[in-house]
């Protein structure tokens, strides 16, 4: 980054030189606390501000300062070096201030001076800065850096990983420069101090006080005292400790205590020394020691290799730490206070070996082991020493007994030379155990185990006799006071480093409700969470039945394949890897190798993103597996590596070349680093074993899950049986939008800006270019001094070319007292982009004037061809004007639904609408609209019969009624009697689209008619409840007495078909007549009604009364204005069509839309005004053809009025005219005859064709008249 020396003003007005770094990517400016104190700046805001940097590194700043900055007072000599903002930019030094993008681009100049291909000088207000890369050699300069507080904003740029790397290199260098071996071959090391040991204070009194506390414990536990004494006696006998006779300064006293390990085969009690106990200076020994780098692989890497070969072998380094001596000069920092009996004098001792409990102990001991590997010449032994040891545990394997026995022999003979004896030898092969001799001096040299015995191998329980991994979950008693801390402690007791039972343990990890509720670590859990955890953890006892084979290969195998699967859900995501080995005889074996699981983040993340995280986990897990296999010389070619995911979006992302969002791109880059796109394949969800990780599985079920232990069934078959096809997504989400960035440079200005410095000149330039593109022939004719062609749109304008090369209108206003531009306006082509831009500009300048006003203003300076059409199109495409007066269109009227044209019992299919409230004078009952609606429905069915389908308006009242019915139905779902009743009398309730009352026009019209009768009869008088009920019944009878069909013209047909015929066999409002009919007559009447309905009503329903025009159909993605009668038009919201619902005729009448808030809802098309687009201007081909034919007739009529009609008056008949015109194109003599009769020759063949067509029409008219 570029640096600069700037001046900063303190509160007293004095200026100080500071070094600043210029960072165009930072959104804030930062100053170090040391620089702020040096300048005595005053803080004006002490609120804590949280800051996020690269790699999601978060920090905070608690103070804000204000200061003035300035460039240095520099002269500008000839040489550019004297103008550098930071003359010492190539020397490392402290940074005081960081200037972000808020200031960066204000001070950045335009001058640039190239230095190399990758570096240059750029001018700024502070002087010249160096940008880019330069081959600068930095010299090692010893300097002290100002400490940066963890709360400082600059701590974002001081990565913890970088600091750790520096300390690791220092510890490594210290070890290599100080390590040695004594006469017995043991390593001698020195403690790696990070700072001067003089910083340590007195620690003797602290160590004595801790020992006295330990003695009081000994008094209570005599057995512990005896074991402790035996341990310390062993220390003395092995010469690992000696009495401290001198007084050293500085020195450090280590407190110590006992740690019991009941399941240990050798040492039940260990004495642990506390190197973190602070002295009176506040520092402990561990505070001033370097930790050192990790020199051994992780547990998972060792266990993955442990599962590869047939024969397993394990061992343990005896007292590993105590086999490494500490240099005499550093032993004073490992002093202890001890006495065997309380009546003895307290004695001070010095520990002479690497001591467990000090910060550098692990590094020093394991680094000595890897140094042995560096010195060994045998590559196999070198690999085992450096890769198969985890601290002091050996975990290794081999293909044969001979190979493993060779490992034993060489390891034992090699390590004993350096004072590292191996013991506790154990193997899965009984034959190998018999080949290892038992040493009489050490009973623990060889472990003889029975069939059921198990040992711990890096946390996993291994049964050597069966060569299987087991799980042991002890009996668990739930705590009375269960907290979040105890839950994490419980789940971590089940150790599964290679993910053998991930689907079970993930259920305990996905209890994210603890974190979402923000429960503290020691707060007692709610009873619901407590019971769920007890149920889960108790079920883990079933893991004791899980048996997993250690070896995953069939031997010998000719082909090995790796198959990795990934999956994700809202709770978790994970990946699992399977080994597929095939023998030469064709037998196939598939076994689970390893898996990993991750809990989904608390912040909501989309499923495709989580699936991508799972795919990344699978790719990295596969890469780690391949690395470990290569370490064992097991090569798996890339063609035999298969990565599977059930997310088609993730696979499309991986195989796509598009640009995606930062979240997606970063993970895709990592995936493509460790895998290739052709390795990724799609797997159905039900056949994806990783799906068990994402959703979890019961502990009782996992032992029987073939999908988990052996993968999908088709892996046992040939490749031709594997899944090979899937449906690729039509569109990919999270594609990055490419944004253009405007950059400034010192290159010459564009030629257009140099040539045309005035707006008028630039305007003429654009109009000239538009005319050249549109009027090429006309320009050629005018420049040659000729007239334009008669077919040219400029023919009637008397065009000419002015001194600027512009085509202007000649016209007839030469003598008018107006400006020259108004007399001779510039011609604008109708389809030019320049014309459209000018009309748009004038439309906005005139405050969205209409087409007439817009055309009038444009015509003052220009002559736009087809100006009315252009003005109308401009106003039509203006979104602001369209929103002020949106145009709604109704789709073509749909065919009648099946329910309207199918004969069925009256009211079996019913439409209902809410009408009310109706005010009554007394007896008002307070009934909610929903309950009132339900009661009305019950009374209606009691009088008219059961309803099978009920249609209603999609209003809040009916939706609420539906919810009320659904809730009551669910509440009484267990009532058998109610279930039987609802099954027999079930009503299917259907809603029309929301805000679309015209979908239910039939019952809307009935409501309107009922209101008309009520208003006219009641005259606004409040009636009683009984009077109102009576009136409503009378209105009902009147409505049911209306004719359904027009009156017949037959005088003998006196009856008219009414709804009453379907209820009582006749009109309801007519007076009763004597009834002499029989049952047969009544049946005949019903038959006649049905016959009349079958023959009269369909004929009446054929005609369409409105909505006859076919309008533009809605498509997905359309932007429209949603009509809202409660708001003015300019406030109607914009919506996007997300789903269309075409009818049986293919016409869309209802759609699903989404508003700006992300809400989805259904609306009819008549409520939407689609924003105009340029595609709307292009008519349908059929409509265009019809319009052309109409235009032909119109133009033919005009030509007839002009040319033919006057001539008809001079002829007595059409016998001469018609043959002459019809044969005009073929016969030149007849053409002359037509001319001799007074006809002027048409301009072109098109006019001739129009005349022929028109004459044919005249012939037909003439024949009719005659």
Automatic annotation (TrEMBL):
Kindly state one GO CC term assigned in the UniProt record. DNA polymerase complex
Any one GO molecular function term: nucleic acid binding
Q: Which residues form the Integrase zinc-binding domain?
A: 836-886
- Look up the domain of life of the source: Eukaryota
| Stretches that traverse the bilayer | none
Q: Name one GO biological process term.
A: DNA biosynthetic process
Which Pfam families does the entry link to?
A: DUF5641, Integrase_H2C2, Peptidase_A17
Task: Kindly give the InterPro entries that the UniProt entry links to this protein.
Answer: DNA/RNA_pol_sf, DUF5641, Integrase_H2C2, Peptidase_aspartic_dom_sf, Retrotrans_Pao, Rev_trsase/Diguanyl_cyclase, RNaseH-like_sf, RNaseH_sf
Residues in domain DUF5641?
Answer: 1100-1171
PANTHER family from the entry? GAG-LIKE PROTEIN (PTHR47331:SF1), PHD-TYPE DOMAIN-CONTAINING PROTEIN (PTHR47331)
Q: What is this protein called?
A: Uncharacterized protein
Species for this entry: Aphis craccivora
């Amino acid at each position: 980054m570029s640096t600069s020396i700037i001046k900063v003003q303190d509160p007293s007005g004095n200026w100080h030189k500071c070094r600043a770094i210029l960072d165009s990517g930072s959104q804030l400016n930062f100053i170090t606390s040391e620089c702020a104190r040096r300048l005595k700046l005053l803080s004006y805001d002490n609120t804590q501000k949280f800051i996020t940097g690269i790699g999601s590194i978060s920090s905070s700043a608690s103070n804000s300062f204000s200061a003035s900055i300035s460039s240095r007072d520099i002269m500008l000599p000839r040489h550019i070096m004297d103008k550098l903002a930071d003359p010492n930019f190539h020397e490392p030094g402290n940074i005081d201030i960081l200037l972000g993008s808020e200031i960066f681009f204000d001070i950045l100049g335009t001058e640039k001076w190239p230095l190399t291909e990758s570096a240059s000088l750029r001018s700024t207000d502070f002087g010249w800065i160096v940008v880019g890369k330069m081959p600068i050699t930095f010299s090692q300069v010893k300097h002290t850096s100002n400490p940066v507080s963890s709360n400082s904003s600059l701590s974002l740029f001081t990565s913890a990983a970088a600091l750790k790397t520096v300390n690791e290199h220092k510890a490594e260098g210290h070890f290599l420069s100080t390590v040695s071996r004594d006469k017995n071959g043991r390593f001698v090391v020195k403690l790696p101090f990070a700072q001067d040991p003089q910083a340590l204070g007195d620690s003797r009194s602290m160590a004595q006080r801790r020992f006295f506390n330990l003695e009081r414990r000994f008094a209570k536990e005599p057995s512990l005292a005896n074991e402790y004494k035996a341990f310390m006696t062993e220390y003395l006998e092995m010469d690992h400790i000696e009495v401290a006779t001198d007084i050293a300064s500085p020195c450090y006293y280590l407190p110590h205590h006992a740690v019991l390990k009941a399941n240990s085969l050798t040492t039940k009690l260990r004495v642990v020394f506390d190197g973190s106990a602070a002295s009176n200076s506040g520092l402990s020994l561990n505070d001033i020691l370097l930790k050192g780098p990790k020199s051994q692989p992780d547990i998972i890497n060792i266990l993955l290799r442990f599962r590869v070969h047939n024969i397993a072998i394990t061992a343990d380094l005896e007292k590993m730490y105590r086999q490494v001596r500490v240099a005499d000069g550093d032993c004073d920092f490992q002093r202890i206070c001890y006495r065997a009996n309380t009546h003895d004098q307290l004695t001070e001792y010095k520990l002479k070996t690497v001591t467990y409990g000090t910060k550098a102990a692990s590094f020093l001991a394991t680094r000595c082991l890897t140094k042995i590997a560096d010195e060994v010449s045998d590559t196999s032994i070198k690999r085992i020493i450096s890769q198969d040891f985890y601290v002091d545990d050996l975990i290794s394997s081999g293909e044969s007994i001979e190979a493993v026995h060779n490992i034993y022999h060489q390891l034992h003979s090699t390590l004993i030379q350096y004072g590292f004896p191996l013991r506790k030898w154990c193997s899965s092969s009984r034959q190998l155990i018999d080949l290892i001799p038992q040493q009489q001096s050490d009973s623990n040299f060889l472990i003889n185990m029975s069939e059921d015995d198990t040992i711990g191998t890096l946390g996993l329980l291994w049964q050597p006799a069966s060569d299987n991994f087991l799980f042991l979950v002890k009996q668990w008693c739930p705590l009375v006071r269960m907290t979040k801390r105890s839950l994490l402690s419980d789940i971590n007791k089940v150790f599964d480093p290679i993910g053998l039972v991930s689907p079970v343990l993930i259920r305990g990890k996905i209890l994210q409700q603890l974190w979402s509720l923000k429960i503290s670590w020691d707060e007692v859990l709610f009873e619901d969470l407590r019971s769920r955890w007890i149920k889960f953890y108790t079920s883990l006892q079933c893991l004791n039945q899980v048996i997993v084979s250690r070896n995953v290969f069939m031997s010998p195998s000719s082909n090995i394949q790796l198959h990795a699967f990934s999956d994700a859900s809202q709770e978790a995501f994970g990946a699992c890897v399977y080994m597929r080995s095939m023998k030469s005889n064709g037998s196939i074996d598939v076994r689970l190798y390893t898996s990993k699981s991750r809990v989904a983040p608390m912040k909501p993340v989309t499923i495709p993103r989580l699936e991508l995280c799972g795919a990344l986990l699978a790719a990295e897990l596969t890469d780690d597996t391949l690395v470990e296999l290569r370490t064992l010389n097991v090569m798996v070619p890339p063609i035999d590596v298969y990565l599977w995911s059930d997310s088609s979006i993730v696979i499309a992302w991986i195989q796509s070349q598009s640009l995606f969002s930062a979240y997606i791109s970063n993970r895709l880059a990592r995936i493509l680093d460790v895998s290739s796109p052709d390795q990724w394949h799609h797997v159905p969800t039900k056949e994806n074993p990783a799906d068990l990780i994402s959703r979890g599985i019961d502990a009782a079920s996992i032992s029987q899950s073939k999908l988990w232990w052996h993968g999908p069934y088709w892996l046992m078959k040939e490749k031709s049986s594997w899944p090979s096809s899937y449906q690729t997504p039509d569109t990919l989400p999270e594609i990055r939008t490419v944004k253009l960035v405007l950059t400034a440079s010192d290159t010459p200005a564009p030629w257009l800006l140099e040539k045309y410095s005035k707006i008028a000149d630039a305007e003429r330039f654009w109009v000239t270019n538009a005319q050249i593109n549109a009027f090429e022939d006309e320009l050629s004719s005018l420049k040659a001094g000729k007239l334009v062609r008669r077919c040219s749109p400029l023919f009637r304008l008397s065009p000419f070319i002015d001194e600027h090369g512009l085509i202007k209108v000649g016209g007839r206003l030469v003598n008018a007292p107006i400006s020259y531009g108004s007399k001779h306006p510039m011609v604008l082509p109708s389809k030019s982009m320049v014309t459209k831009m000018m009309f748009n500009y004038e439309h906005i300048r005139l405050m969205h004037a209409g087409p007439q006003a817009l055309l009038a203003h444009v015509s003052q300076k220009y002559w736009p061809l087809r100006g009315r059409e252009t003005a109308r199109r401009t106003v039509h495409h203006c979104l602001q004007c369209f929103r002020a007066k949106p145009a709604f269109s109704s789709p073509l009227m749909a065919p009648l639904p099946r329910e309207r044209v199918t004969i069925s019992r009256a009211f079996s299919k019913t439409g209902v609408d809410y009408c009310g409230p109706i005010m009554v004078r007394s007896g008002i009952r307070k009934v909610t609209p929903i309950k009132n609606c339900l009661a009305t429905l019950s009374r209606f069915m009691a009088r008219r019969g059961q309803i099978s389908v009920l249609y209603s308006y999609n209003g809040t009242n009916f939706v609420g009624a539906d919810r009320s019915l659904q809730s009551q139905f669910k509440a009484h779902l267990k009532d058998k009697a109610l279930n039987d009743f609802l099954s027999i009398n079930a009503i299917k309730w259907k809603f029309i689209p929301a805000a679309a009352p015209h979908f239910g026009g039939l019952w809307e019209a009935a409501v309107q008619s009922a209101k008309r009768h009520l208003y006219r009869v009641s005259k606004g008088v409040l009636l009683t409840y009984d009077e109102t009920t009576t009136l409503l019944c009378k209105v009902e009878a009147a409505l049911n007495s209306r004719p359904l069909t027009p009156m017949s013209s037959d005088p003998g047909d006196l009856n008219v078909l009414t709804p009453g015929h379907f209820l009582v066999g006749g009109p309801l409002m007519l007076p009763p007549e004597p009834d002499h009919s029989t049952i047969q007559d009544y049946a005949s009447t019903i038959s006649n009604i049905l016959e009349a309905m079958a023959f009269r009503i369909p004929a009446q329903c054929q005609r369409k009364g409105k909505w006859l025009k076919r309008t533009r159909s809605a498509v997905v993605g359309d932007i429209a204005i949603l009509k809202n009668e409660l708001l003015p038009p300019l406030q109607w919201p914009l919506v996007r069509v997300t789903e269309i619902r075409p009818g049986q005729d293919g016409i869309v009448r209802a759609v699903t839309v989404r508003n700006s808030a992300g809400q989805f809802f259904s609306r009819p098309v008549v409520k939407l005004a689609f924003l105009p687009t340029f595609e709307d201007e292009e008519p349908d081909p059929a409509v265009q053809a019809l319009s052309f034919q109409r235009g032909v007739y119109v133009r033919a009529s005009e030509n007839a009025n002009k040319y033919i009609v006057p001539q008809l008056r001079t002829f007595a008949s059409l016998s001469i005219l018609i043959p002459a015109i019809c044969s005009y194109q073929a016969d030149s003599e007849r053409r002359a005859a037509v001319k001799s009769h007074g006809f002027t020759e048409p301009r072109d063949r098109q006019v001739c064709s129009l005349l022929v067509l028109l004459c044919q029409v005249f012939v037909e008219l003439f024949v009719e008249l005659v």
